[in-house]
Amino acid sequence: MRFNTPINMRKLLSAAFLCFSLPAMALLLVLSFFTVQRQSDAEIKSYQNNLITYASNLERTLYNTNTQLSYTAFTNPKFQIFSWSDSLFEKHSYAYEIMNPFTVILNQEQLIGGFFLYSASPSYYYPNYQIDYSYEDKQTVHTFLSEAASLTAERESWVTLELSDRLVLIRSSRIGENLCAAMIDPALDQAVAYASNPQEGILFFYATKEGDVFYPKELQSKWEDGFDSSPVKNVTYGGRSCYLIKTPVKNSSVFLCCLIPQKGFWHILSPSEKIILLLILLLFCLAPFLWMALYKQLLNPLTVLSSYMNQIADGNYSLLVPEDQKITELQDFSHTLNHTLQSIHRLKEESYERKLDLQQAQLQYLHLQIRPHFYINCLNNIYSLAKNKEYDEIQETILSLSDYFRYVFRNSQKLVTLTEELHCVKSYIYLRQNNFASTLLLTMDIDAATADIFILPLSLLTFVENCIQHSKNITGLTIHIRSRLLTTPRGRYLNLTVSDNNGGFSAEDLEYLNHIGERKSLYDDYHVGISNIYYRMKLTWNQEGELFFYNQDCGSCVEIIIPVGKEEKPNDHYDR
Fold first, then answer.
1. Can you tell me the distance from the alpha carbon of 374 to that of 408, in angstroms, rounded to the nearest whole number?
2. How many whole angstroms separate alpha carbon 367 and alpha carbon 369?
3. Which of 363, 40, 69 is nearest to 232 (CA)?
4. Of 222, 250, 387, 460, which is least packed with CB atoms within 10 Å of its CB?
């Protein structure tokens, strides 16, 4: 008898598999039958716990936001001054400081859609949004706040506001017709969004107690079994039987809901799926061997590629992925990825150059505003003076014209002093006095402390040109320029005013000019010069430079407010 007879490994493994896998499968099926209900209950309980956890985020945000609104409205002295002030500039100055703590909270709390300051008289509105909502949604919020400011009694709780694609919660605190408000946008809850898995029919969403869904709104149209406040309810959604699990958000009329498909062992597994389950178990037994082979031939190269992809995600586009892969597809992928990285690097350089070109074009676009008819009139005037042999007047006119064009054609990226800008304005007035239909008079009230402050070139000249170009005064046009140095809690500001006796702006022009940043494109052909001044101020001083347009007495008035000492001083000055 031979005791060392070789054993057939295939038969041995097959026997071992049958001896262990078949009884294990039978026990698995029996155990699944008795535990499926417990698993279902445990799953529902798990989702309920998750809902409570996620809802606490909104509860905390509502509480903190209420606290901040109450503190601002009833304790913050700057909001008291903001409410009592009847000056738009003063309101704007204090609004910036009031909004600072709101901005900090906005960066920390993802569910806050925005904070707002609103005043009915004089009309002032300062929004600060978390994301860029559509223009229609912003108008809806603005309208809601204006209506809230006119109510006789203040709303004491969060109210629902319908936007174009979602519902939001808004609450305000006010003093008289002045209010500070906050908007909570449940659609910004990333934890709830990530918890949803539409492919598996798992949906997390916020809803009111009436069943109105905050986001996405189209979810509400698919209800087939109604909506109530029961914690767990069997519903039919999209033709499937589901569980609707709800938990209330404290101190609000909002529910956090979860929609999951009902699961049952025998309902889920079809005959083909049972066969697949057996194959999965077989593959489970072979998993160690498959793992070794896959790791050597596929997973290890993929791990290397993954490390490169992480570097690419961090912005490193200059690296090259190794192309010496044993698998053809991975080799092709590495080659394609390297080609893509090179293209991205090249396009990034081209994009950067285009941005520089665009900014240069924006800053120099104002130089295209030289009006041909003005130049022709000046030449005609010189011709008339030459015909009359008025040589002294010709010399003065040419000198003024030379000063004017040398100043206009200079580099628009260089700032100039107020004195230099006023010198150009005087040259322009002198040139226009010779061919203006009526009397043209320029008066100035310049604070000596402002003479050497740097401003944008052509900023005063543009508005002086507009006064003359649109003049309707047949008895005589008077233009007055005033400068003042203002000191505020935010720092020092230069206040420039250009006014005339030309009858003032129309209501339509005032509405357009005071909202030019919302409606005007840089390259439109309407109010081109004013638009250029506006955009160049934003490029130079961001949000700290302001333009205001209004009427006073019998004429129009333009105010320019810019910070002092916050711009980069030019390397050279205008050489007269």
1. 13
2. 5
3. 40
4. 387
Spatial separation of the C-alpha atoms in residues 227 and 152, rounded to whole Å? 34
Secondary structure of residue 169 in the 3-state scheme: strand
Q: Distance (Å, rounded) from C-alpha 559 to C-alpha 483?
A: 10
pLDDT in tens, 275-327: 766 676 676 677 566 556 655 666 667 677 777 777 777 767 677 777 777 77
Would strands 440-446 and 477-488 be described as parallel, antiparallel, or unpaired? parallel
The order of strands in the sheet holding 240-248 is 203-208, 254-261, 240-248, 232-237
Give the angle subtended at the CA of 485 by the CAs of 482 and 490, to the nearest 5°: 135
DSSP symbols for 191-246:
HHHHH-BGGGTBEEEEEETT--BSSSGGGGGGBSS---S-SEEEEEETTEEEEEEE
Distance CA 485, CA 448 (A): 9
Contact 525, 533 (CB under 8 A): no
Q: Which residue, among 422, 377, 390, 382, has the nearest Cα to 403 in the 3D structure? A: 422
Q: Does the global pTM surpass 0.70?
A: no
- At 259, which helix (H) or strand (E)? strand 254-261
**Using CB atoms within 10 A of its CB, is residue 316 exposed (0-12), middle (13-18) or buried (19+)?**
exposed
By CB atoms closer than 10 A (0-12, 13-18, 19+), residue 148 is: buried
